[in-house]
Amino acid sequence: MRLLSSVSKAFCILDAFSIESPELSLAQIAKLAGIHKSSAFRLLATLEAHGFVERSPAGHGYRLGWKLAELSGRLLARYGLREQAAPFMEELAEKSGEIVHLSILDGGEIVYLEKKGRSQPLTVSTAIGGRSPAHASAMGKVLLAGLAEEELRRVLAGLRLQRFTPTTITDRRRLARELAAIRSQGYALDNEETFPGIRCVAAPLRDREGRVVAALSVTAPAQRMGARRQAELRKEVKYTAARISERIRVGGISS
Fold first, then answer.
1. Who contacts 69 (Cβ-Cβ below 8 Å, separation ≥6)?
2. For residue 135, what is the DSSP state?
3. Phi-psi region for residue 97, left (φ > 0), alpha (ψ -120 to 50) or beta?
4. What span, in angstroms and rounded, lies between the C-alpha atoms of 44 and 64?
5. CA distances from residue 8 to 4, 21, 67, 68, 69 in whole angstroms, order as listed
């Protein structure tokens, strides 16, 4: 199937923005999207007219528009999972004193659906709707481990196991062994695999058919997550994930 180049270029422009670079100049956008400045300008004008981008207050650059937030809200509204999980996440965040995340799998990446807990020094900056590589995160490994064998092979075949830290798993056989262990033990760990100094514990959320539909995690600085603390959090995360799963089994979730 032949793709429309103009639409592909427009998506490349939207993908150029990030949490680290929320505002970009025309020249920066053209370079990051790999298109000519004149084409970028015309596409930006179209995206701006539809609310997908907007001019910065000073008028020297562009940033994402609120139309994307509206569409994101429509998508996330499909997952009644957020509403069902939120009170349990708040309870876990209060009890642990750490950041609690909820995510789903999209290809080789996780997408953050919800976040609870107070931001504090030495924690990682994440945002609802943000993404992270699945192979380098506890939640991602939980979600990969929950895939059917054929689907897992397909996802892993297209996955680039990029190294982010010295502890990132980049060997496919080692990753396969870890996923098998995660299926058996019911939880996953992130030993500073995406961000140095940050560790996570994650557990799966299951629907009424027993399928893994999402992952729950607690994120904390490594200095606050030694072996004993990790064991405590592992117990709490698994317990909370089981409670949310029970809620899902009773109430169901949208698809």
1. none
2. G
3. left
4. 10
5. 6, 21, 18, 17, 20
φ and ψ at residue 246, rounded to 5 degrees: -65, -40
Predicted pLDDT at 72: 67
203-235: per-residue pLDDT in tens? 999 988 888 999 999 999 999 899 999 999 999
CA dist 26 and 22 (Å) reads 13
- pLDDT, one tens digit per residue, over 112-162 is 889 998 766 556 677 888 888 999 999 999 999 999 888 888 888 888 899
Q: What residue ranges define each of the domains in the chain, with the CATH number in brackets?
A: 5-68 (1.10.10.10), 78-251 (3.30.450.40)
What is this structure's pTM?
A: 0.72
Q: What is the CA radius of gyration of the chain?
A: 20
Give the residue-averaged pLDDT of 22-34.
Answer: 91
Distance CA 1, CA 135 (A): 30
133: β partners: 109
DSSP structure class, residue 215: E
83: its two tokens = 């509403």
